[in-house]
Amino acid sequence: MHEEQTVELPFGFDKVWNAARTVFEQARWGIKKADKATGHYEVVVNTTLGEFGMSFPSVEKFRIDMTRIDENSTRVHAAIRFDQWHWGTTAWYVNTFFTELERQLDSGR
User: Fold this and answer.
1) Average pLDDT of the chain?
2) What pLDDT is recorded for position 46?
3) Distance in angstroms (rounded) separating the CA atoms of residues 52 and 57
4) What is the per-residue pLDDT for 32?
5) Is 36 helix (H, G, I), strand (E, B) or coil?
6) Residue 56: beta bridge partners?
7) Is 41 exposed, middle or buried, given 0-12, 13-18 or 19+ CB atoms closer than 10 A?
8) Is pLDDT above 90 for 15?
9) How far apart are CA 26 and CA 4, in angstroms?
10) With 70 as the cut, is the pLDDT of residue 2 above it?
């Protein structure tokens, strides 16, 4: 399954970059790669395996790319890909990321 979404936020790049890092840390999603110069994060998320409730690090296919639009706006693109057995969870991760990112940004105004 694959899910992606792009939003434009009325915040500067540095503020969005730092807020995203906070979201990853609070969700306990491991940052595999972070390249501020290119605006790229690659994140490992924890998923639960079926009825056993076991968590394990998933495939590193959660990509966040940020682009400076101007001094006060940033475009954020999030894309995640899971194998078939993760059906239905891809949208949850993308939506959770954007919800928490906006919460972080709004709390810092």
Assistant:
1) 85
2) 67
3) 15
4) 92
5) coil
6) 47
7) buried
8) yes
9) 21
10) yes
The one-letter code for the residue type at 41 is Y
Nearest residue to 97 via CA among 13, 25, 32: 25
**Continuous segment of H or E residues that includes residue 41:** strand 40-44
Cross-strand bridge partners of residue 12 = none
Whether 25 contacts 104, CB under 8 Å: no
The whole domain housing 102 covers: 2-107
Kindly compute the dihedral angle of the four CA atoms of residues 35, 40, 46, 47, in this order, to the nearest 10 degrees. Answer: -160
pLDDT over 70 at 31, yes or no: yes
pLDDT value for 103:
96
**With contact defined as beta carbons under 8 Å apart, do 58 and 45 qualify?**
yes
Structural domain count of the chain: 1
Nearest Cα to Cα of residue 57 among 27, 100, 78 = 27
- CATH of residue 45's domain is 3.30.530.50
